[in-house]
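Quick log. Single chain, no ligands specified.
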Amino acid sequence: MRDVTPDVPAPHRRSFLKYTGALGATAAVSASLSACSSGPQSTNDTGTGGGRDRTLTAVIGYGNDGSWDPTQTASAFSMAANHHIYEGLLDTDPISREPYAALATEVPGNPDSTSWKFALRAGATFHDGKPVTADDVVFVFERILDPGTQTLAKGFFASWLKEVRKIDARNVELVLKFPFPDGLSRLTLAKIMPKHVFSRPGAWEEAIKGKAIGSGPYRQTAHHPKSNTTFEAFDGYNGPRRPAFRKMNWLTIVDAAPRVAKISGSSAGAQIADNIPYANIGQLESGGMAVAGGAGMNNLFLMFNTGHKPFDDPRVRRALHYAIDTEKMVEVALKGHGKPSTSFLDEANPSYRRARTVYAYDPDKAKALLKQAGVKGLSIEILAVNVSWIVDCLPTVKASWDAIGVRTTLSPQETTAVFTKMDQKQDYQVVAAASNPNQFGLDADLIMHYNYGPENLWMQYTRWASDPVARQLFKDMDRATREPDPAKKKTMVQDYIDVVAEQAVLYPVVHNELMTAWNPELLSGIRAQPYPGINLLQAKWA
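-> predicted structure:
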């Protein structure tokens, strides 16, 4: 995603990382919002009185206490919620990621142009009743492109978008630095926010804590960090995704057992839940629930500290990848719901090509590479996030490394603890965590820049950005971004991914499915997505 880099300042780093770079189940910002504290206080207030006006209750397996600022957040909960609260000029289908007109009246007919003009939907209003204007659009994009303001969204736009101009009250023009058709789908990442609300002093801090006012089909009615967030259909909405549920109550339940219990049995308190453990699929299906998975970029990755010898040597990094019995990991830990990585990208990605270096299980090659690097008697502590499926995978890594003579200690910790150490530049050897940049989109340029870049937060963690190979990689990535020919661009991306695979500084071990469960007797139109959260914009009561 970037030149595109997660260059977010430390105070907001966790809200950026959660469920993207380090998919975890911990809090980032925990202050509650007095401005959003009206509404039901109990997570059991589901309003299940029957009829079409009953409350839809959803269980989200991630925290709702990360940043809610759409220009800043990577929180699974708030990103999913913001898709219901806010609109971009264009938004995208949650599965195909094809753009459709949201606040704008149409998708530009010439995506290869360096000027995209948009007319705003007539009668579009924010949840406080004020009209959406071109000033609001310019306000959001100026924040994103401001060189003095560090936001996550900057990385999605700054490399290719020059400026956004107001034509008149209902028309805007986006001026591009060069033709960039992939930018159309990225416009959903620039949620249009009311200038009259968020230009006030302190308003961005309120947005981080949970204040959300958009023009989308649902308005936020209450927000209780670490508990639940509630929504109500916005009567003033006149866009393409009409709200089907009068009220919604989204519960945050990070622990797997109570999350599954909430949607189980005849007295289930919720109708849909994401992040379903593989071990519970059969139980839920036998109880009448529909369970479906989405396969995409969700992955367990290893990140090496190249400033800590011997991990500065790519042969050591490659050896440790070759040593892992990934087929066993998929069978035992993922219950068959995954695949060993054969590229940085998952196999379903449109830009996928099998990498030149594929880390098929080969302990003999691993031993030979360690010998070539002159490494013997190596001891490693794996600093890992304590996400349940990551913890399930760790014993396979330990057994595999122990088997080649690398003494391995597992150290799973809360995600906040792991990345606080990273922020503080504490020493470490290897981090095991989870990532899913698909929540931002499918285009490979975005995905790779999210992980790699000269000022990228991940590269700061790895201490690798100054390496000559890294510097050349970043140049190759920038050239690929600017390449106008789609076929040539795809090949250029695939070629530099070969370098990423060979260097294995930050690289996936397995890609796995994310499971969603719902009651098919009550809900229809549900589609399991391959990234955290849920999307109910095309769902309805059965």
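The chain has two domains: 55-289+519-541, 297-513.
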